[in-house]
UniProtKB/TrEMBL annotation:
Keywords: Cell membrane, Membrane, Transmembrane, Transmembrane helix, Transport. GO terms for cellular component: plasma membrane. It is found in: Cell membrane. The lineage of its organism: Bacteria, Bacillati, Bacillota, Clostridia, Christensenellales. This is Nicotinamide riboside transporter PnuC. The chain crosses the membrane at residues 12-30, 36-53, 60-77, 83-102, 123-141, 147-165, 172-191, 197-217. It is a multi-pass membrane protein.
Amino acid sequence: MLKEKINYFSKTEKILWISSVAIILAVFLIFDRERYLTLAASLIGVTSLIFNAKGNPVGQILMIAFSLLYGIISFTFSYYGEMITYLGMTLPMAVVALIAWLKNPYNGNRSEVKVNRIGKKEPALMWLLAAAVTVAFYFILDAFRTANMIPSTISVTTSFVAVYLTFRRSPYYALGYVANDVVLIVLWVMASVEDVTYISVAVCFAAFLVNDLYGFLNWRKMERRQNGQKGCAGNGQACAREEK
C-alpha cells in the first residue's frame, strides 16, 4: 500500500513538483520573507495542479483553499477583479467541479476522473457565457476602480473558460489555465514594479504555467488510455461519446 502511494506520481511529476516548490521557496526568500500567506497559497496552488494533472479530485479541494488565499492576496494590491473572480467564480466552480469529478470516476477509481469530450456546439455556448460574464465583470471592476483594468478584465475571461472546462472534465481546461497564467504573470509583474515582494506571486504563476502545460499533455494521455481500454484503440473518434 505504501509503495503504491509513493509510486502514484511518475518520476516526471515528482521532478516537476519538487522543482516548482524549490523555485517558489527560493524567490520567496530572496524577494519577500514576510508574506507567508503568499508562500502558503503558492505551495497549495502548485500542489493542486499536480493532482489535477492526474485527474484526482484532491486537486479541486486544494484549488478551493488556493482560491480563498489568493482572493485575500489580490485584495492587498487592489486587484479587486482577481479577488472577485477567485472568490466569486473560481472557488464556487471548484466546488462544482469537485462534485462532478467525484460523480464521474474512471472505472470506479475515485483517484482518476473520467475524461469527457464535449460536443461540437458546446464551445459556442461556453464563449457566449464567457462574453456575458466578462462584460458584467468589466462594469463591476470599473466601479471598484480596479488596478490595471484591461489585463484584469481579460483574466476574468480566461478564468471562466478554465473553470467551465474543468467542470466539464475536458483536457482543454489546462489550456484555459495556461492562458490565465500568462495574464496573471503580466498582472503581478506590473504589481511588482511598485512592490518588489509581489515578484514571488508572478513566479508562482510562472510555475503554474509549466504545470498546466503538463496537465494538458497528461489529460490527453489519460483520454487515449481510457478510450483504448474500452476497446476503442484505433477508432477513438467513433468510440468517443459526448457526455451530457
